[in-house]
Amino acid sequence: MQIDADERTSFSITELAEEFGVTSRTIRFYEDKGLINPAREGTTRIYSRKDRGRLKIILRGRRLGFSLQDIKKMLDMYSPESGSRAQLTFTLTKCEEQLEKLKAQRADINEAIEEIEDGIRQLKDYLAAGGDPSKGARKTIA
Fold first, then answer.
1. What domains can be seen in the chain, in order of their start residue?
2. d(CA 40, CA 111)
3. Residues in Cβ contact with 37 at an 8 Å cutoff, skipping those fewer than 6 apart
4. Nearest to residue 61, comparing CAs of 51, 71, 69?
5. What are 37-81's pLDDT values in tens digits?
6. What is the pLDDT of residues 104-139, one digit of tens each?
């Protein structure tokens, strides 16, 4: 019988890498940045459920476009003893900022798509009308 990952208390770097579809190098990078801090048994890293949870949040944050600095601040602000209102407020602000950035990027992408589609239509129409692109280029210059 296999134990569900949510019920386990410790994980190897290989297990986490496989579970989250990242490389061991990626996990070590986040460790070097102080985002996760596994225990050590000699040279072997032993990741706790907390480390696994933090890694899950880190990867989600990166996928959504947050900086490592912001992700670290979000993670470090969490305190089960004092509540997490400050963390939630900071996270909400960052999410709203990121949403606005993504909406602006989407608008830019939609505009670029429209321009490319228009260019493609013009090229197809020109070619369908028997146009010669080399002559057409001279016509537009003259």
1. 7-66 (1.10.1660.10)
2. 51
3. 31, 51
4. 71
5. 999 999 899 999 999 999 999 999 999 999 999 999 999 887 666
6. 999 999 999 999 999 999 999 999 988 776 665 544
